[in-house]
Amino acid sequence: MNVLLDTNVALDVILQRELFYQNVSKIVDGSQHGVYTAFVSASAVTDIYYIACKELRDKRLVMARIKLLLKTVDVAAVTGVEIRRAINLDWNDFEDCVQFTAGERLAVRYIITRDPGGFAGSGIPALNPDQFLAMITVD
Asked: What mean pLDDT is predicted for residues 18-40?
């Protein structure tokens, strides 16, 4: 099963956000152990880098954490096809459109996000990390 981690969830890992890190790290561990395959979109990686550098003010630390995450989580391509489809979706949040189209191309089963409402019309169930973990047993 393929799942897509939304930018905000990947940032929880990279920034080790206290309120969210524990559950999100369990999701990453599940991917590492082959329970499912987790992806982040290629466009999210650049956003993650930019946001994390602004917050942590340490480019080397941010890059080290991204490298560590990408040992466990695969990268979903974002091509002109995904961008054009996202533009045509005309949702309120263009970034959510791009995430959806990247996930759609991979036939992801779920989008894991802290903002499930942003994907309400997507056709791919969007779950918050707690909801996803309630469905999956991660050792």
From this structure: 95
